[in-house]
Amino acid sequence: MTEDKQPKPKEPQPPVAFDPVEAALRQIFDDVAAEDIPADFADLVAQLTPKSSDKKDK
Amino acid sequence: MPEPDAEPLSADELDAFKAQMVAMIPALRGFGRGLCRDRVLADDLVQEAMMRAWASRHTFIPGSNFRAWIFMILRNHYFSGAKKRARYTVWDPEAAERILVQDATQESGVHVEDVMRAIHRLPEQQREILLLVAGAGLSYEEAAQVTGANMGTVKSRLNRGRASIRALLDDANAPAVA
């Protein structure tokens, strides 16, 4: 008995139903992402510097 | 901030670490806002989480999942202490009002503000999974890593959370019985 090497045809995927709850949650994150990031985040990132001993040369 | 004793990172590794952290700011702000319900306090939470992540940078394994790692830091910080502050439990209707409603969501009759209100009536374990998976787009595996739950539990909490929100929204929209 030989093994069928033919790739199986893909089974049709069930349609993904629109979920308004997930869409609303996604919208919350999308809206936040569309906002300008407050300047204090940039200030924080600028302050994130390692101790002098933290740097190593490659 | 205490710095752990560990193999120091190279300049390139530090730059890469910082770049990954900056790239995650929008998603972390979304998650923080979902947890805190207040945009200003959520940003405070995110900044505290970023500082913790920076202080723990030596524990991050390059090449592993940075997104799950930093979400876990924010989540653990929130649940370990920040949550206890009463100021994190204030609902900000004005902020919610400013959230735009997507067309498709509008057509379905579901409003972002209603969903946010409903999600904060859920058990925290369901709420965080909904925010992580449905909101931030994390995979089940990532959500499991962030919350410390197994994949089956993540899926179960997600499904129960979805069903609970729908039920809450249905109740809110049901006509009052005389």
Q: Overview of this structure, please?
A:
The complex is a heterodimer of chains A (58) and B (178). Chain A is mainly alpha-helical and 58 residues long. Helices cover 41% and strands 0% of the residues of chain A. Chain A has 2 helices and no strands. Chain A starts with 19 loop residues before the first helix and ends in an 11-residue tail after the last helix. With 178 residues, chain B is mostly helical. Chain B folds into 2 domains: 89 residues, Rna Polymerase Sigma Factor, Chain: A, CATH 1.10.1740; 77 residues, Orthogonal Bundle (Arc Repressor Mutant, subunit A). In chain B, helix 2 packs parallel to helix 4, helix 8 packs across helix 10 and helix 9 crosses helix 10. Chain B is built from 10 helices and no strands.
CATH class of the largest domain in chain B: Mainly Alpha
Beta-strand portion of chain B reads under 5%
Kindly identify the CATH topology of the largest domain in chain B.
Answer: Rna Polymerase Sigma Factor, Chain: A
What's the end-to-end separation of chain B, in Å?
60 Å
**Helicity level of chain A:** 40-55%
Largest interface: A-B, 32 and 49 residues
| Quaternary assembly | heterodimer
Tell me the major beta sheet of chain A.
none
- Count of β-strands of chain B: 0
CATH architecture of the largest domain in chain B: Orthogonal Bundle
* Number of H- or I-type helical stretches of chain A: 2
Question: CATH superfamily name of the largest domain in chain B?
Answer: RNA polymerase sigma factor, region 2, helix turn helix motif
Number of strands of chain A: 0
Label the structural class of chain A.
Answer: mainly alpha
Which spans of chain A have pLDDT < 50 for at least 5 consecutive residues? none
Summarize the main sheet of chain B.
Answer: none
From the spread of the alpha carbons, the general shape of chain A counts as elongated
